[in-house]
Amino acid sequence: MNEGYKPIEWGAAMLAQAGQKDCGDQYLIEPQPNGLFLAVIDGLGHGPKAALAAQTAVEALRPYTDDDLPSLMQRCHQALMGTRGAVVTLARLDLRASALAWLSVGNVSAMLIHSDRNAATARDHLLLRGGVVGYRMPPLRVFTERLYPGDTLVIVTDGIRSTFVEDIPVHLPPQVMANAILDRYNRRTDDATVVVARYNG
Ligand SMILES: [Mn+2]
Fold this sequence. Notes:
There is one protein chain. The protein has helices spanning about 50-60, 70-80, 175-185; strands spanning about 10-15, 25-30, 35-45, 85-95, 100-105, 110-115, 125, 145, 150-155, 190-200. It is an alpha+beta fold. The strands form 2 sheets. A 5-stranded antiparallel sheet has the order 1-10-9-6-7, with helices on one face. A 5-stranded antiparallel sheet has the order 2-3-4-5-8. Helix 1 crosses helix 2 (about 70-80). The two termini are about 20 Å apart. About 45% of the residues are buried. The site of manganese (II) ion has 6 residues, from loops.
């Protein structure tokens, strides 16, 4: 860990399906001057073809992570034509605006957990839109959420059992939290990825 105050901290953990060498999930996390860009990609199916689709998406995004999220999703769509396709969630934490922007095509789940643990409804879930990047894109609508210091963004692929939401260890540092969720809730029947980012303000 670096020393000193960091406005955003993050961590990620990933595990290929049992018996597979190639992981069909990929993520990209890029620090930016005024925030952090995150992408989590689940190539359809698993094995080498899923891995190729997910890796293709990462390479399509990497040079352009400053662009707006719909443009980036369209870049993925163009790049993934002729591949298996993938489901993708994109997010950006914007330090100047104290805001989260997020956008999904398909079922990579994302939630924002507010730091006030006394509030029962202190979670926002990204509305997932059906579709497959590379094949069939839904209308792209970016949602935004206000960020408060201590808020934690969690993005998971469907290789993580959905029951993880019942016991999210928000008190842990992001990397430890990502490892803990992966260890406890991965299905082993699919590739599994957990990405965590915490906004410290
Ligand atoms: Mn999957």
